[in-house]
Amino acid sequence: MKKRIYILNGHPAEASLSKTFTEIYAKTARAAGHEVRLTHLHDLEFDSDFGHSNFSDTKPLEPSLEQLISDIEWSEHVVLAAPLWWGGLPAKLKGAIDRTFLPGRTFDTRVKEGTLPKPMLGGRTARIIITSDTPGWYMQLIYRNAIFQQLKKQIFGFVGLKPSRFTHFTGASTAKPENVARWISKVEKIALSAS
């Protein structure tokens, strides 16, 4: 089944493994007949500071952020590739999420008092590709997969992107060419199934 796929390279640098993975995913998915839109975070110009203590009177979205959220709304499947920095997402990527995942657009706060807001991006799935230097066993045992839980439950799940599937590549800073080739092959496989 062909899908509309939105891919976000969440690395702020011009060159990165995240960029490589998103471009490979896009190329493979297009070849399989899927409709694909790809955005590189480093190309987006916006103020990443949310700048408010609540959701009233928020800053108008810059054109690049409006396009980002419009592309997510257009999609049936969202792919995010990003590095793990200091246990979290790069500041510019987190800023893009802070600025665009707003009530009335991604979740509805007009619900019964005491209940969680209603997700507005339901019916979409997600694949998140994380690169890090933290070994998988350490991520799970010591950090309790905190970044995965945050993305799955507090960000993507909160707005309705379910399920969120994860691919984690470790040893990214000093990756040997054979490891990168193996990772690329894995990205191609998940792109073929648009999962």
From TrEMBL:
GO terms of molecular function: NAD(P)H dehydrogenase (quinone) activity
Residue ranges of domain Flavodoxin-like fold in the record: 3-186
The keyword Oxidoreductase appears for this protein: yes
Source organism (scientific name): Ahrensia marina
Gene3D superfamilies (UniProt xref): 3.40.50.360
Pfam family, one: Flavodoxin_2
Superkingdom per UniProt: Bacteria
Protein name in UniProt: NAD(P)H dehydrogenase
A GO CC term attached to the entry: cytosol
Keyword Oxidoreductase: yes
Keywords assigned: Oxidoreductase
Family to which this protein belongs: Belongs to the NAD(P)H dehydrogenase (quinone) family.
